[in-house]
């Protein structure tokens, strides 16, 4: 099972929209068996997936020693299962740190062992934070994808995230920065300046850039969110959907930025 983590230390950059729609495409268009892990206490991805918190969440894995199998839920799409999140992740992060009798970094890794062989791909949507649940996610991650807007405060978080990945690599040698994905791209002069600076920094960039959502695209995104759909179900032809499809193809065919 290959595991991809979407991350940025800044919130609101579009990680959840991108990761959930990628999971949909991987399962429905690519025929992959996909496990999605919501690692954000806001649980936006979980709500989109139709989570039932009574069936358990990632909190139960981190705090109660539950296995992935015990909290696994099936999405309405064939080939897509998920582990939900809830606000309990806030308490779970403190509890893991306080527990000196348990190895803190491999809780999620151990919980996934019994189900890992059932999936081709695992996608983790991470919060804009560095905490024990993120550390656990990075321990099981192969490829990190940093989603960013071409805004200075968002870009500044990239270097911090790269350093964090380097710190985790001593515990997970397979961890790698797969690339930086530009979201909400629009060719304004100031945006192009930041983009050029990012290119010159030497960070790996995906060829695909997710376009800034036009008014119709925003309508389709809102409609999809309201009805618990993928963007492709709301409007496969909108520019953002086309860009997400191009990104999925670049990523899943092994493209290297």
Describe what is shown at a glance:
With 257 residues, the chain is an alpha/beta fold. Helices cover 45% and strands 18% of the residues. Strand 7, helix 9 and strand 8 form a beta-alpha-beta unit.
Strand order of the largest sheet: 3-4-2-5-1-6-7-8
Q: Report the sheet with the most strands, covering strand number, pairing sense and barrel closure.
A: 8 strands, mixed
Distance between the termini: 22 Å
Level of helix content?
A: 40-55%
Report the total helices: 12
Describe the structure.
By secondary structure, this protein is α/β, with parallel strands linked by helices. The protein is 45% helix and 18% strand. The chain has twelve helices and eight strands. Helix 1 packs across helix 12 and helix 3 (58-64) packs parallel to helix 5. The protein is globular.
What topology does this entry show?
Blueprint: E1 2-7, H1 15-28, E2 34-38, H2 44-48, H3 58-64, H4 68-71, E3 73-74, E4 80-83, H5 88-98, H6 107-112, E5 121-125, H7 132-139, E6 143-148, H8 152-168, E7 176-185, H9 189-200, E8 205-211, H10 215-227, H11 231-235, H12 239-252
Parallel strand pairs: 1-5, 1-6, 2-4, 2-5, 6-7, 7-8
Antiparallel strand pairs: 3-4
Helix pairs in contact: 1-12, 3-5
Properties at a glance:
alpha/beta; single chain; globular; 257 residues; 12 helices; eight-stranded mixed beta sheet
